[in-house]
């Protein structure tokens, strides 16, 4: 669902990388030197949430390894079709917290804007994989959300989300930030994104300048789940963002077969720290239909966090959290 937006006459490098995609299972297998028969007999070429992997991300997947933790995050699996009790299309009851299209408002002082439905990559565990983006983004895109925000002086923090807000061009982001900057009650800007994890080139100088505006305190929350996703290019871009005064955090999802062992989680925290990013949340999986095969039970999750505590400084241990519909904050289980 990527809409191409021209940024003047020159196509930025990240745009080129974003468009250089693998969407075909046979091509994926060929590039990764995998035999389809090795893919746990489970890869699903006909998923309704299609395979979408930029080659820049593919380069970090180990060739010939059907169990690679990065591969597992992007490869549609037949288990996704299994109906599992308790797993549904809207596990967080987001539709009940939509005051106007494009806004999710659950927590005090913070509002989340759904600014696009596009993502650089399709993550199999995505809790918004069944999200009704068309109802949020139809018609006068953003207008209703901006008008709502203008009236809500109790909101101090706006969170750009989606989809992935950094799939928007710098030009579109600038338009949005200009509108938001005119609302005097907004003190904090937060951007939740996985795009730079997949395409570090997205953090170009123009974006760094946009995010570092002195208008407010900006926090970027990356969504990385594995140490190998923190590439040297991402670390370099983070150094620029950090130097520009942007606070850098990461949230991950605890995913069976991806990061559900303490070595993987410790390595992730260490790699984040090297890149000047602090771990924020480690989320228990949201019960979205199609993702049950990624679930890790709470006992195991708590044991993993205890192991992290024994091996890392406190500031590198993320808060293990779950989102429970109807609560006034995310539920912290540990950390
Ligand atoms: C997760 C979430 C937030 C942010 O919660 P924090 O605990 O501040 O990170 C805000 N709004 C919505 C709707 C959310 O789902
Ligand atoms: S980038 Fe985020 S919103 Fe997009 S598919 Fe992945 S988890 Fe879902």
TrEMBL record:
Residues that bear N6-(pyridoxal phosphate)lysine: 330
Domain Radical SAM core residue range list: 105-335
Protein name: L-lysine 2,3-aminomutase
Family classification: Belongs to the radical SAM superfamily. KamA family.
PANTHER family: L-LYSINE 2,3-AMINOMUTASE, LYSINE 2,3-AMINOMUTASE-RELATED
Keywords assigned: 4Fe-4S, Iron, Iron-sulfur, Isomerase, Metal-binding, Pyridoxal phosphate, S-adenosyl-L-methionine
GO molecular function: 4 iron, 4 sulfur cluster binding; isomerase activity; metal ion binding
Residues noted as binding [4Fe-4S] cluster in the record, renumbered to the chain: 119, 123, 126
Catalytic activity annotation: L-lysine = D-beta-lysine
Cofactor: [4Fe-4S] cluster; pyridoxal 5'-phosphate
NCBIfam families assigned to the protein according to its UniProt record, in alphabetical order: EFP_modif_epmB (TIGR03821), KamA family radical SAM protein (TIGR00238)
Domain of life: Bacteria
PROSITE patterns given in the database record: RADICAL_SAM (PS51918)
Organism from which the protein derives: Alloalcanivorax xenomutans
Gene3D superfamilies per the UniProt record, alphabetical: Aldolase class I
Cross-referenced SUPFAM superfamilies: Radical SAM enzymes
């Amino acid at each position: 669902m990527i809409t191409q937006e021209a940024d003047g006459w020159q196509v930025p490098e990240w745009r080129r990388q974003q468009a250089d995609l693998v969407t075909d299972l046979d091509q994926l297998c060929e590039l990764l030197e995998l035999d389809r028969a090795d893919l746990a007999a489970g890869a699903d070429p006909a998923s309704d949430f299609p395979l979408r992997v930029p080659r820049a991300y593919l380069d970090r997947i180990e060739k010939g390894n059907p169990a690679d933790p990065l591969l597992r995050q992007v490869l549609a699996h037949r288990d996704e079709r299994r109906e599992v009790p308790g797993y549904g299309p809207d596990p967080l009851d987001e539709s009940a917290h939509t005051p106007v299209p494009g806004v999710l408002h659950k927590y005090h002082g913070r509002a989340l804007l759904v600014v696009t439905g596009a993502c650089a990559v399709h993550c199999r565990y995505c809790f918004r994989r069944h999200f009704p983006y068309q109802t949020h983004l139809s018609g006068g895109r953003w207008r209703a959300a901006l008008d709502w925000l203008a009236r809500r002086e109790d909101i101090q923090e706006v969170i750009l989300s989606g989809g992935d807000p950094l799939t928007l061009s710098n030009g579109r982001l600038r338009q949005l930030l200009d509108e938001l900057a005119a609302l005097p009650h907004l003190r904090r800007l937060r951007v939740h994104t996985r795009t730079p994890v997949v395409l570090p080139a997205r953090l170009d100088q123009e974006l760094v300048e946009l995010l570092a505006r002195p208008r407010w305190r900006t926090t970027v929350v990356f969504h990385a789940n594995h140490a190998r996703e923190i590439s040297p290019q991402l670390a370099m871009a983070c150094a620029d963002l950090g130097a520009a005064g942007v606070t850098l955090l990461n949230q991950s999802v605890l995913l069976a077969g991806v990061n559900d062992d303490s070595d993987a989680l410790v390595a992730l925290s260490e790699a984040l720290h090297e890149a000047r990013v602090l771990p924020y949340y480690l989320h228990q999986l949201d019960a979205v239909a199609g993702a049950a095969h990624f679930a890790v039970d709470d006992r195991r999750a708590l044991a993993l966090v205890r192991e992290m505590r024994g091996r890392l400084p406190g500031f590198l241990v993320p808060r293990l959290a779950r989102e429970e519909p109807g609560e006034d904050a995310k539920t912290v289980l540990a950390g």
